[in-house]
Amino acid sequence: MLTRRHFIQTTTALFSASIASPLLADTWPTESQKAAWDEQVTPLGYDSATTNPWGLHPRFLPQRVVAKRSLVPGDIHVDAVARYLYHIEEGGTAMRYGVAIAKGDLYEPGTYAIKRKVKWPHWTPTKNMIERNPEYEQYAGGMEPGPTNALGSRALYLYVGNRDSYLRIHGTPYPKSIGGRASSGCVRMVMAHINELYPNVRIGSTAFLYSAEDSVTAQS
């Protein structure tokens, strides 16, 4: 199993202080509709480092941190203990974002390829999700895009080889869940935050999801 210890011995080891959607659907939003939704989920006067109408702990706001230079630019690392997502940049830095991870044993540590990314995606719950949450039955045919969609404003689709894992890194209409364990398997982000991250993520990049059961204590 890929563990958090493989990634980080302490939080400062690699990073220091700051310097399920259908492929075919009946309807797709227009570019103007997407732009209107983006405006709706982006607070007025938004500044990623300080804007916080969601009441997040300040450590979950986007922050540029120092990264070990051996890490591959473009890759994503999810620390499930500290609830951080790191997007590695050129020159030894990374952007760090607060996230929520899956409940219980639904979180799946592993190494994934990002093979698809979508703005304002549709969402279709899996059969297992419907079995666990019968209220999802109403969306068995797919949930239309929009600010209340379960995948929010952006989604990065995680694959193992050519197989869709049905895991996503995505926006959420429930920003107060950030920092907790809330999803059915995916990694959640504030929509304004993933909107900032999204254009910087390349198809083919690797996403490393580290174990939430590792005993290393995270530093805030």
UniProtKB/TrEMBL annotation:
<comment type="pathway">
    <text>Cell wall biogenesis; peptidoglycan biosynthesis.</text>
</comment>
<feature type="active site" description="Proton donor/acceptor">
    <location>
        <position position="170"/>
    </location>
</feature>
<feature type="domain" description="L,D-TPase catalytic">
    <location>
        <begin position="74"/>
        <end position="210"/>
    </location>
</feature>
<keyword id="KW-0732">Signal</keyword>
<keyword id="KW-0378">Hydrolase</keyword>
<keyword id="KW-0573">Peptidoglycan synthesis</keyword>
<protein>
    <submittedName>
        <fullName>Putative L,D-transpeptidase YnhG</fullName>
        <ecNumber>2.-.-.-</ecNumber>
    </submittedName>
</protein>
<keyword id="KW-0808">Transferase</keyword>
<dbReference type="GO" id="GO:0005576">
    <property type="term" value="C:extracellular region"/>
</dbReference>
<dbReference type="InterPro" id="IPR038063">
    <property type="entry name" value="Transpep_catalytic_dom"/>
</dbReference>
<dbReference type="GO" id="GO:0008360">
    <property type="term" value="P:regulation of cell shape"/>
</dbReference>
<feature type="signal peptide">
    <location>
        <begin position="1"/>
        <end position="25"/>
    </location>
</feature>
<dbReference type="GO" id="GO:0018104">
    <property type="term" value="P:peptidoglycan-protein cross-linking"/>
</dbReference>
<dbReference type="InterPro" id="IPR050979">
    <property type="entry name" value="LD-transpeptidase"/>
</dbReference>
<keyword id="KW-0614">Plasmid</keyword>
<dbReference type="GO" id="GO:0071972">
    <property type="term" value="F:peptidoglycan L,D-transpeptidase activity"/>
</dbReference>
<dbReference type="GO" id="GO:0071555">
    <property type="term" value="P:cell wall organization"/>
</dbReference>
<feature type="active site" description="Nucleophile">
    <location>
        <position position="186"/>
    </location>
</feature>
<keyword id="KW-0961">Cell wall biogenesis/degradation</keyword>
<keyword id="KW-0133">Cell shape</keyword>
<dbReference type="Pfam" id="PF03734">
    <property type="entry name" value="YkuD"/>
</dbReference>
<keyword id="KW-0328">Glycosyltransferase</keyword>
<comment type="similarity">
    <text>Belongs to the YkuD family.</text>
</comment>
<dbReference type="GO" id="GO:0016757">
    <property type="term" value="F:glycosyltransferase activity"/>
</dbReference>
<dbReference type="InterPro" id="IPR005490">
    <property type="entry name" value="LD_TPept_cat_dom"/>
</dbReference>
